[in-house]
Structures
1.
Amino acid sequence: MTNDPNSLVVDFVGGAVAHRFHFGGGRGQALPKAIGMKSGNSPRVVDATAGLGRDAFLLASLGSKVTLIERSNEMHRLLAEGMERARAAGGEIAEVIARMTLLHGDAKALLPGLSPEVVLVDPMHPPRKNSALVKKEMRLIREIVGTDQDSTDLMRVALDCAGKRVVLKWPQKADPMEGIRAPSHQITGKSTRYDVFMIG
């Protein structure tokens, strides 16, 4: 861990992730609903824009096998280190990590070979008016990964590759992503909405 306020750490053992793991709303949360976790269903998910891995961890904690794809060298390293710390911690957290597989590369190239049931896409959004803590964290992430100029292309690949559905995580009040078809339905959270694209 680090005490440097300008450093980013992927932490699955403590902090917000651990709190959500122990006290979260389970499958009733917006993301699991969007993914299709109902009636005991735990689909295989590819998180095509892994970032800090929090969404992937949530889905894995609810029983899904999740493949995380991250193309940034630095973010991939931080994720790998965070997952290794969680593995070393043992117990329930390590069991969740065992359902997570981390890949390094461009999701547009990797997705066709993965045959995912569900693809989650969470592009780097423009800055939002949130708390200073989130602003700082998002600023640090943005400095590492940049902006996702090819998010429309990624969505098109995801829609071609997913077996059951694609879920686009998007700011609640943002216009729909241009250049792709309208979602089948939407699930709204506090500051985020999930545009769900059913396949077939």
2.
Amino acid sequence: MNKSPLAIAVLGSGKGSNCQSLIDAIAAGRLNARLVGVISDVENAYILTRARQNGIAAEFISAAPFKTKLEGEAERRYIATLKAWGADVIALAGFMRIIKPGLLAAFPNRILNIHPALLPAFPGVEAWKQALEYGAKIAGCTVHVVDAGTDTGPILVQRSVPILDEDTPETLHARIQVEEHLAYPEALQLIASGAAILKGRRFYFRGTATPK
């Protein structure tokens, strides 16, 4: 029996290329899901335009007065909107806000983020620059569950790219983004299919060994 499509809501602050990868994966039949809505904390963010062009509900909800976190009345408005849309899972796609306990409690272990590094290495901002400056030989991206820490939640999917001698931050970031656009739909399909099982900090997958 086919599972019902996973109801995904996306939060983003910028261009929304990862949101587009989800839209494309759904259209191609690689992701059994539907996007129920997109919220941005930036009024003119292109991610909202992408959503509207594809017939997806799109809302600007200010996070003021805070500059770097989602808390207080704004957080309550986000939660109310996400619940009204019937979201099963929240996908952060370049959402430049720290997620606080209220939203985490409203969607426990159901908020995902994609980070441009192979966590736990290089958490935080501009991770591709961190990897390049450190002299790492491999970079990549990680889809993980959001928890109360900074890029510290359980890891669901990782994809890697080599760091080339001639790489600049821009060329490395571009190659990582190619992998992001594959990793996010892959991770969400694991959730949608019921294949991913979270035990403690580790994800296991149906058909493989799981802890007793």
3.
Amino acid sequence: MTSQNIYILAIESSCDDTAASVMHNGKILSNIVANQKIHEAYGGVVPELASRAHQQNIVPVVDQALKKAGINKDQLSAIAFTRGPGLMGSLLVGTSFAKSLAYGLNIPLIDVNHMQAHILAHFIDEADFEKPPFPFLAMTISGGHTQIVKVNSYFDMEVIGETIDDAVGEAFDKSGKILGLGYPAGPEIDRRAKLGNPKAYAFTKPKVDGLNFSFSGLKTAILYFVQKQVKANPNFIEEHLNDVCASIQYTIIGILIDKLKLATKQTGIKHIAIGGGVSANSGIRQALKDGEHKFGWTTYVPKFEYTTDNAAMIAIVGHLKYLEGNYADQSVMASARLKI
């Protein structure tokens, strides 16, 4: 990317994963993630527990990232960190640490928008991974977000569709909870969907104008459906779990693909990139690939480790901002509802 020797240390702490990564001239040298298993018992992320765990994890995670990269902190060119959006307590831990470290080392501090980072993860310098050309459409799908973004350049992005209630990841997790699956339920629904019949049960797709999404009605429909079936047959879930999972996944994928079809029609853009934790779902990846033949799309799917929350995606934004001299100062604050 450049002949300079640019080392970026990136820190991500927007939700329940503490992550740190070191990037050298656009290439990832280390990408360390500490997961917080504590939330599984509660069926969802508990913000207070998350911020406490970040405080425990951040120093060892950063230390590991530097060691794995084979550099010391004095070689760093800048510190990049997630400013938002996310859980305020979690963001504060990463923000405070990044500010202190940048101040102590007297190097630039770079604030990163978490949602932009999911999109720009496609530009990490990786062999065999094609980068989307501008302009392209990005669909960011995660536990907290569902958006379609028109990406004109690295930092010229326009949200053209988003969820008006629950995110797609919530739809998976809450459906899983109804079915008695553990948290997070998305990967388990994906696994079981491969074993079931996607057309066994029909769930109505919510009608939402334009490119916006809604998932709360679908979640309610699934709840009522399961309650009705269990009343008639107490063993219904046990006997039909794979088919129910396949039908739920099929419906959710249908909602996403319908909106993408409309977005490509409205914008005339046929290059589609996905990002966010839910883009790890095999059914969604397959539906996008199928869309290449059906609708003439070209699709871009990031490497698996760059889909869920990670610091490598923060590092690439930090690198690109560093090249532009786009730094933050010490007065920068975390922002839980930061917009693209």
